[in-house]
Amino acid sequence: MLAWPLVKARAGIQLLNAIDSVAGGTAGARQALSGTRYGPLPVQRLDLWVPDAPAGPKRPVLVFVYGGGWNSGAPQDYRFLGRTFARAGYVVVIPGYRLVPDGVFPHMLEDTAKALAWTRDNVAAYGGDSDRVVIMGQSAGAYNVAMVALERQWLGREGVPDGFVKGVVGLSGPYDFYPFTSDSARAAFGRVAPPQITQPISYVRGDAPPMLLLTGDADTVVKPRNSKALAAALDQAGSNVRLVIVPGANHEDTVVKLAAPFSRDRRVIDPVLTFLAERTAASAPVQAAVR
Questions:
Q1: CATH homologous superfamily for 4-280?
Q2: Full-prediction pTM beyond 0.90?
Q3: CB 158, CB 207: distance < 8 Å
């Protein structure tokens, strides 16, 4: 296993990409866009990956938002993820977003919503089906996608209607983390009053998009209680939620195990692929019924 301090650094992510390209190869996926603007700010750029196959019916779309404590990361760091899911048949959009010190709340949410608006308007030109979009994030990125899915204002400001997001995958995400105990959380959210407005669990609703919340029981960075608490609240509200806890997995495993050869441990990628297939099927309902 790659140690997370190595993977977390830019050099480590690049090494993970290199390992994936050797162990998994690059066949089956193609980068169609690199550094394309989705907004006017320098960081508002995205990469887009497509299956390397003859054009055919419109393909489902996965928008992936990376982690990094709201203070590190870039779309090009996650080429392995673009390859992994493009090979599985998805058009994959990986947007950048503002990071601390510029990326304090709510800027990371504004950027995520703006990237989804770009996806709605442009993904068809790259073979994607804008009616079958699922969003996924890991760690801080899981926070971003959970918030824009649960609190309607962010997508609403960009003119993205309810029902556009067909599902949400949160990997090792912080959803109920006040009081803030980490330097990264204090830097991103510490000046917000009241602080509860920053918490995804504050916006639970019965008609939220279906969610898969996956975490490891050995995660000491973002404790599994975050996923458990949000899953319980969503279930109580009548929303469609699935909680997966991977025994022995730590915080980093939920992204490392999406790259070859680490994806041979199927306990992360299989639940994700199953959920994506369910949510992007032509017959999938827009949202769970409120009970």
A1: Alpha/Beta hydrolase fold, catalytic domain (3.40.50.1820)
A2: yes
A3: no
